[in-house]
Amino acid sequence: QVQLVESGGGLVQAGGSLRLSCVVSGNILSLANMGWYRQTPGNQRELAAGFRGSTPNYADSVKGRFSISRDAVKNTLYLDMNNLKVEDTAVYYCTGIGSYGPIWGQGTQVTVSS
What is the gyration radius of the CA atoms in the chain, in angstroms? Predict the structure, then answer.
């Protein structure tokens, strides 16, 4: 069973940057449509950035500030987040679609202070 482990979250001031990493315990190319979702208390998870095939897609709220990438050698998915805003505060989850359906990581907390 493929597992996803996120890291890189933390506390940062508005305007700062963070890089999230998601290590895949297997071949990253075995997962389709990998991406990053985020969730705040009382709300549903929403897509922040993800791949459709090889094409990256971004939520309007993060376009120009976030960048998703992957390293097939390191089996790692990244999310580079720049010019962070208070409203980016959330738990960020890595996900991908495996042979038996969607797989999720445990999440990593990102907190942006004003």
Answer: 13
Structure tokens at 34: 């990998």
Instruction: Tell which residue, 36, 85, 30, 84, has the closest CA to residue 56.
Output: 36
| C-alpha span between 114 and 13 (Å, rounded) | 6
In the DSSP assignment, the letter for residue 110 is E
Per-10-residue mean pLDDT of the chain, 114 residues long, equals: 94 98 92 96 96 95 98 96 98 95 97 97
Q: What are the distances in angstroms from CA 85 to CA 31, 43, 71, 114?
A: 30, 18, 27, 8
Identity at 74, one-letter amino acid code: K
